[in-house]
Write a structure and sequence with these properties.
This protein is an alpha/beta fold. It has 2 domains: about 150 residues, 3-Layer(aba) Sandwich (Mannitol-specific EII, Chain A); about 100 residues, Alpha-Beta Plaits. Helices cover about 35% and strands about 20% of the residues. It has 9 helices and 10 strands. The strands form 2 sheets. Strands 1, 2, 3, 4, 5 and 6 form a 6-stranded mixed beta sheet that branches. A 4-stranded antiparallel beta sheet has the order 8-9-7-10. The radius of gyration is 21 Å and the shape is globular.
Length: about 280
């Protein structure tokens, strides 16, 4: 997925106007309405769509970021808009902090999968401290866009629209909740069809009912988070890229406990795990 075609230079600004939530929403709507990809879509419809989504719950996710988004009838393509508010704006964020970095996403209602993928990209890029710092430090709108695209590109280089042969089964087992959520978002960004998850139990938890092992439960990890395994069929020639992207989240897996990647070569694959 090439994010750059959705995030064009004219929809980026380092001086987003507005001192209230409603004013910021209007400024973002104006950016989107000015994009050639939103041609024919009324500014008022975009603004009202974003405001209605905020009524369902704030898109201020904490750490100074917000991702307003909505679906608009009549739009043919998705548009991302990036804006920096230097003073910060009260946006009803979950952590109560002012929001400085905004990424708005507007697109057609007919493609909910792409909407989710773009949300996942924005969430992961803006959720990383280094990328937020670089965006907040941008001296031009061009630099702001480049900072976002730089941090998005490692995780969005795959394109599920291409005809590919899936010939490897990757299993990623993770204990830590935050890392698990980030990897799920990564797989969603990459457009890996049919990734599924399975919840498991640590050996110590299984042995909890066996009296002879009672004294060893702490050693075996009875109090640790339950592991979950993500499974996906992926093209073999993308494995290195996928693993590298996962290790951007976990760190070097050879030195990281609580996470593991296993790759298998299935002899036969029939059918698909894609959503029906």
């Amino acid at each position: 997925m090439d994010i750059s075609k959705y995030l064009t230079p004219e929809v980026c600004t380092i001086d987003l106007a507005g001192g209230t939530k409603e004013e910021i929403i209007r400024s973002l709507a104006e950016l989107i309405a000015g994009s050639s990809k939103a041609a024919g879509t009324d500014l008022a419809n975009i603004e009202q769509g974003l405001l209605k989504r905020e009524e369902m719950g704030s898109t201020g996710f904490g750490r100074g970021i917000a991702i307003p988004h909505c679906k608009i009838e009549g739009m043919k393509e998705f548009v991302l808009a990036l804006g920096i508010s230097n003073k910060g704006v009260a946006f009803d964020a979950m952590d109560g902090r002012s929001v400085h970095v905004f990424c708005a996403i507007v697109g057609p209602p007919e493609d909910p999968e792409m909407h989710l993928r773009l949300l996942a990209v924005a969430s992961r890029v803006l959720g990383a401290g280094r990328s937020r710092y670089e965006m907040l430090s941008s001296s031009t709108s061009y630099a702001l866009r480049e900072a976002f695209l730089y941090h998005a590109s490692p995780a969005t280089a795959l394109d599920s629209s291409k005809d590919r042969t899936f010939n490897k089964l990757i299993l990623v087992t993770v204990q830590e909740e935050d890392i698990y959520n980030d990897i799920i978002e990564l797989f969603l960004e990459m457009g890996l069809p049919g990734a599924i998850t399975h919840e498991g139990s640590l050996m110590g938890q299984i042995l909890s009912g066996v009296p002879v092992f009672a004294g060893f439960l702490d050693v075996l990890g009875s109090s640790k988070p339950e592991p979950r395994t993500i499974l996906a069929l992926v093209p073999g020639d993308t494995l290195d890229e996928i693993i590298a992207s996962i290790e951007e989240i976990t760190g070097d897996l050879d030195n990281h406990k609580g996470a593991c990647i296993i790759v298998l070569s299935p002899d036969i694959v029939r059918g698909s795990l894609e959503t029906v």
